[in-house]
Task: structure prediction
Amino acid sequence: MNIQDLVRPNIRQLVPYSSARSEFTGAASVFLDANENPFNNPYNRYPDPLQREVKALISQIRGIPAENIFLGVGSDECIDVVYRTFCRPGIDNVVAMSPSYGMYEVCADINDVAYRRVPLTDDFFLDADAMLAAADSCTKVMWICSPNNPTGNAFPLDVIAGLCSRFQGFVVVVEEYIDFSSRGSMLWHLAATPNLIVMQTLSKAWGSAAVRLGIAFASQEIIDIFNKVKYPYNVNLLTQRYAVDILKRHTEVTAWVDRLKENRTALIAALSGLPCVCHIYPTDANFVLVRVTDADAIYDFLRSRGIIVRNRNRVEKCLGCLRITVGTADENATLINTLLDYGK
Ligand SMILES: *Cc1c(COP(=O)(O)O)cnc(C)c1O
Result:
């Protein structure tokens, strides 16, 4: 496959903005090239446009070379850069499994790209044949979220790899919850799969939703194009410094994840004993999708007691379902005790 053929012609021909800091990268002591104010160091200086220090740490932790890493302002920017790079507005389309994360469709709408929804099976399995059948010569991207939000399940790697080999466009696998999953990551398929893009984030397991840092892993050819399309200084210095700090604390993060997995097991056990719970779907994430006796009423009841869960009652195939994030042991106990009061 020729990646350049799949890139929008205007992006293929783009002469990117060349910033002062990307033209000079060596060591120097006097910087008079970027019209910065010399006072208030270090926030007076433009940040590294390619975030090298952050990428070096992600590279070490994930075992993927830095040149295969793109960083965005949350995964939301990574999602958007995929559309802006590959999809011609009003012409191209994408295929996505449903139900899944809402931003793939919102971002398609913003970019005027048709969004083709392919339902998961009733037990939330990925229907690879249906995804391929929904594609045509203008389908540039397939969206796979694994573990999936809101269903919680992860898909077998061989099913995803099979989809990559049978599809002529890009397969984006969004792995925001991969640290909570017992299934492996698609990252290990990256080197042998030129049309694979894997997304991860600092927002979930890494406990850093407030700082907005999303990661896309792909071939260097794709990453180089994303870097041309993004805003030159998309990730600010405060975020880069914080990211370096949290990435160095990754053993602590692993301990949080272990604790949340224990809390998840306990939460599922407690929920399964409640009269208002009809079904708990298997989960590879830090949340559980739960079918309850009356989703709207229970959502309102919890809200009236100051507990907010996600009502998925109007989402395809999620009729009667609430999505509940795994919290601390105390938070989970408060939820369970409150649900015991429901209907009394
Ligand atoms: C939470 C979530 C995101 C958001 O990621 P950010 O990096 O915070 O933008 C993206 N995709 C899925 C599937 C999510 O669940």
Summary: The longest helix spans residues 250-272. The CA atoms of residues 140 and 169 lie 5 Å apart. The chain has two domains: 3-22+49-248, 251-341. Residues 74-76, 101, 145, 149, 174, 176, 201, 203, 209, 214 surround pyridoxal-5'-phosphate (CB under 6 Å).
